[in-house]
Amino acid sequence: MKKKPPSVFRQILIPVFSLAALAGGWILVQNSRHSDLFQKEIMKSPDFSFQDRTGRMFSSSELKGKVWVVDFIFSHCAGSCPVLTQQMNSLQKEWRGNPDFKLVSLTVDPDRDNVKALKAYADDLKADENQWFFLTGAKADLYKVIREGFKVTAMPNEEQVPGFDFIHSDRLILMDAKGSVRALYNGEMPEEMAKLKQDVKYLMSLREKS
User: Tell me, which fold does domain 43-209 have in CATH?
Assistant: First the structure.
């Protein structure tokens, strides 16, 4: 007896399912790899200890074994800070409640950004105090960590334009669980923020496998 040829419906379904499987595999591969900005260990994160918004001393040792991102802001900034903070908030929403992922914001204006000011700033963002740490301290100590430790810019703006009182880095810096810098991302470029999120997922997936 001759076999019946496959129905038209089956002929359509087979390539559709094949394409879906290929697409699914491609997505899995993309989600499990890092972006083109991600590098091997660039440098070690500096050690630091500053006050958080609750008034307690927060040490970089608390970040050991965590994947984390750091940025540099001041609460009354009218320049890049609102955008950087929005990007950090987006990361918090994606990883909220995950104890292995942390966010750190260092102020470049500790004279005004005291504990009370940072608490108001963080509360307005509904930032989780166990996941997103806003830090302040002595200006000389902060600037040493930012400039010499993270090797990015932080300085007063001589023009003293309200809201633009400081010149500082607009980069978000990604750290792995070993405390090594893996990449810097321009917080004002959506395409680089997409790569940051991809790289966070990559590092977090490595933690899950270890």
Answer: Glutaredoxin (3.40.30)
